[in-house]
């Protein structure tokens, strides 16, 4: 089994220029596998501008850069891929829009059926959650960590765990079989700053995966 990695999601609101500097410092401090730009309250032009600023910050550091919800804007701005919710554009349409080499992940909440369906359609990863209470968004599912163990045994694409994940509760998800931990508030709201938060997660990953 490959080691669990960090999947960083942006805060829901940000000013892309100063945030780009904060993100760069965090990524220079700790290696993460992926950054998803999720700006639910911003419209097309603002999303385009933010992606044009944040994408090179990630790609220059060999970090996969995904856009939430919008394969059209992801393609336009040169993102590496897109993350789709169940209410977003269907996977097949997103794949046709993004091409065969793009990374496309799908939220599956607490549904085994949706995960099997997404992987069968060709998704590059499936996301389960929320595993713990979260204020970032209203949870549409509350799976137990056991779903990660089930997926590890039967799934053929990686599983992303999301929802209220902190360094304290991360070990149970890592041990259950999560390939990636999607982290948001525990990083951006950390009193010591995002770099310090990511270092704390990195220590947990190293200790739990050892």
What does this structure look like?
- It is a single chain.
- The protein has 210 residues and is an alpha/beta fold.
- It has one domain (5-209): TIM Barrel.
- The chain is 43% helix and 18% strand.
- It has 9 helices and 8 strands.
- The protein has helices spanning 16-29, 44-59, 71-77, 91-98, 112-121, 146-154, 170-176, 185-188, 194-209, and strands spanning 5-9, 34-37, 64-68, 81-84, 103-109, 125-128, 159-162, 180-183.
- Strands 1-2-3-4-5-6-7-8 form an 8-stranded parallel β-barrel, surrounded by 7 helices.
- Helix 1 (16-29) runs parallel beside helix 9 (194-209).
- The radius of gyration is 16 Å and the shape is globular.
CA radius of gyration is 16 Å
The termini sit apart by 12 Å
The tally of helices reads: 9
Widest beta sheet: strand line-up: 1-2-3-4-5-6-7-8
Number of domains: 1
- Low-confidence sequence ranges: none
Query: In CATH's first tier, which class applies?
Result: Alpha Beta
The major beta sheet can be summarized as: 8 strands, parallel, barrel
Query: Can you give the mean pLDDT?
Result: 95
SSE string: EHEHEHEHEHEHEHEHH
Return the CATH architecture: Alpha-Beta Barrel
How large is the share of residues in beta strands?
15-25%
Number of strands: 8
Structural class: alpha/beta
- In the CATH hierarchy, what is the superfamily? Aldolase class I
What helical percentage do the residues reach? Answer: 40-55%
Which of globular, elongated, flat, extended, rod-shaped describes the shape? globular
Instruction: Look up the CATH topology.
Output: TIM Barrel
């Amino acid at each position: 089994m490959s080691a669990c990695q960090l999947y960083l999601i942006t805060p829901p609101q940000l000013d892309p220029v100063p945030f780009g500097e904060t993100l760069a410092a965090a990524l220079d401090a700790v290696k993460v596998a992926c950054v998803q730009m999720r700006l639910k309250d911003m419209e097309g032009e603002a999303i385009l501008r933010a992606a044009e600023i944040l994408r090179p910050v990630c790609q220059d550091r060999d970090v996969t850069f995904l856009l939430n919800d919008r394969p059209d804007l992801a393609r336009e701005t040169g993102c590496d891929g897109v993350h789709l919710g169940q209410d977003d554009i269907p996977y097949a349409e997103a794949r046709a829009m993004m091409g065969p080499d793009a990374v496309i992940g799908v939220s599956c909440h607490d549904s085994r059926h949706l995960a099997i369906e997404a992987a069968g359609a060709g998704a590059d990863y499936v996301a389960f959650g929320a595993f713990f209470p979260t204020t970032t968004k209203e949870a549409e599912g509350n799976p137990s960590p056991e779903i990660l163990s089930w997926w590890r045994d039967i799934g053929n694409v990686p599983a992303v765990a999301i929802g209220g994940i902190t360094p304290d509760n991360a070990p149970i998800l890592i041990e259950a079989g999560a390939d990636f931990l999607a982290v948001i508030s525990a990083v951006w709201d950390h009193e010591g700053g995002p770099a310090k938060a990511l270092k704390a997660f990195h220590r947990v990953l190293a200790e739990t995966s050892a």
